[in-house]
Amino acid sequence: MFGLTFEKILLIGIVAVFLLGPERLPHYAAQLARLVKQLRNLANGAKDRMRDEMGPEFDDVDWKKLDPRQYDPRRIIREALTDEDELKAQSATVSRAAPNPDGAYLQRKRAREAATQPAPFDSEAT
């Protein structure tokens, strides 16, 4: 939760003891406990309300599938723009396809061949 480890929480607690002092610490600890209980009740109330409004379908929902941390925008766009079968067909045709005529290797080869031939001569040029 928020990247807090046990050691960090313990360090925050020790700093709080020194900053607040022994007189005010019980009061603030009780306030923190009330805040945690209120947040827990709020979350449980929201879950109960969702269950009431969705009915029996609430238990059928796969909540892990809706976790926003699993989404990769690049993958979503790629899947939306192309079908999986289309991707497989493209990968199969690319591996069997002829070399790209505009590829760097063929361009260099054509340049070497052109360098060995004489330059074109136009008798009508001025």
TrEMBL record:
InterPro entries: TatA/B/E (IPR003369). It comes from Cryobacterium cryoconiti. The keyword Lipid biosynthesis does not apply. It is found in: Membrane. It holds the Pfam family TatA_B_E. Keywords: Membrane, Protein transport, Translocation, Transmembrane, Transmembrane helix, Transport. It is a single-pass membrane protein. Its main location: membrane. It comes from the Bacteria. This is Sec-independent protein translocase TatB. Residues 86-126 are annotated as: Disordered. The keyword Transport applies.
